[in-house]
Amino acid sequence: MKFPTFKLEDYFSHSEFKASYLMGSSDAESFSLQEILALADDETRSIWETLRLGYTEVQGSPLLRNEIAHLYPGLQADNILCFAGGEEAIFCTFLSVLNKETHAIVVTPCYQSLHTLALSFAGSVTTIALDEAQGWKLDLDKVKDAIRPNTTLIIFNFPNNPTGALLNKDEVKNLIDITSSHDIYIFSDEVYRLLGRSSLTWDAPVASLYPKAISLSVMSKAFGMAGLRIGWIATQNKELLKSIEFTKHYTSICNSGLSEVVSLIALRAKDIVLKRNCEIIDNNLSILDNFFGDNYTRFSWVRPSGGCVGLVTFNIATPIDIFAQELLDNTGVLIIPGSIFDIEGNTFRIGFGRKNFPEALERFETYVNRYAKESSYS
User: Fold this and answer.
1) Do 127 and 148 meet the contact criterion of CB atoms below 8 Å apart?
2) Euclidean distance between CA atoms 267 and 76, whole angstroms
3) In this structure, is the dihedral angle defined by the CA atoms of residues 304, 309, 313 and 314, taken in order, positive or negative?
């Protein structure tokens, strides 16, 4: 099976480590290993200091899965399956749930593999686009109308990447009502859950609300620890979880023991970790509010409801892909053109989860001002 180019990852592979400022990054500020180890309790410090570098359990460390389960009201450790990052979790789940006799529904825009892997494994796929004119709202009537007799899976991502849109409690309930009436699985990509404004309150994850829901999360986004490569799915359906586990036997088999222990330490200190990351977002969103207010003729966006990314429309004649490359070459600032997400027009993803975001934005604004004077752009 041959997959199409993963446009976002290909873009990052050419540009990410050349850039001085990742103003299009989709994760929160990272931590040093020393910072996380300093948060260890007596038990996890002992586990770290005596760790032997052998194989780990396929499902993930029991202690780690127990800690993850605390994020999902009503679920236990045996409702959790760990992976080497979120991508593996998506791959194994879709391969287990979908086949050429099935139909899937994918809400877009989204992280490309949610769509690409559905296209690869299902017989047919229907996309439902979020409505920008309605603040990136999901039209549930379109979801209902897209359901076919062989629809097996509905796939969505909230807080959404790249728009920052959220579903409210009533929308989640209505979506579950639609899927449950047709006995359809839900795959809910929740990697940005718990990350956003400090004042934001979070409803229960979808896996806690619906027996056929599968919630995806990772250490990479909200927790700012992408280098650990730890992800997981949560579901009430233990039979499905076992099927997905069998698929994992053909991928990573098991995770890094080092990463599992560091993840355990971080999750036990999640209040400290998330508080720091959400405070960074508070500060950066305030700066962005001022920036968009000062530059309202040039830029517009729907202010993200959650997460650390948003989609910006740029009033410029130059195609955004060209501008983004020139920006990187001249300033070291990286943004992600909307074309990477198959979004038409001059849009780009902005990421505001990093501490150096104010400096990156200042460089960006200086370059835009200079660019306006040197070109036909106004």
Assistant:
1) no
2) 15
3) positive
CB 352 within 8 A of CB 363: no
The model scores a pTM over 0.90: yes
pLDDT, tens digit, for every residue of 275-284? 999 999 999 9
Could you identify the residue written with the tokens 């109308």?
145
Peptide bond into 159 cis (omega under 30): yes
Average pLDDT over residues 309-316: 96
H/E segment holding residue 152: strand 151-157
The pLDDT of residue 329 is 94
Residue 180 phi, psi (nearest 5)? -70, -30
| C-beta of residue 206 within 8 angstroms of C-beta of residue 215 | yes
Which contiguous run of DSSP H or E holds residue 337? strand 336-337
Q: Helices 238-248 & 86-97, crossing angle to 10 degrees?
A: 110
- Whether residue 163 has pLDDT greater than 70: yes
Mean pLDDT, residues 24-52 taken together: 97
Residues near 197 by beta carbon (within 8 Å), at least 6 away in sequence: 278, 281, 282, 285, 306
Choose among 184, 228, 221: nearest CA to 82.
228
- How far, in Å, are 205, 257, 348 from residue 281 at the CA level? 21, 31, 19
CB 69 within 8 A of CB 289: no
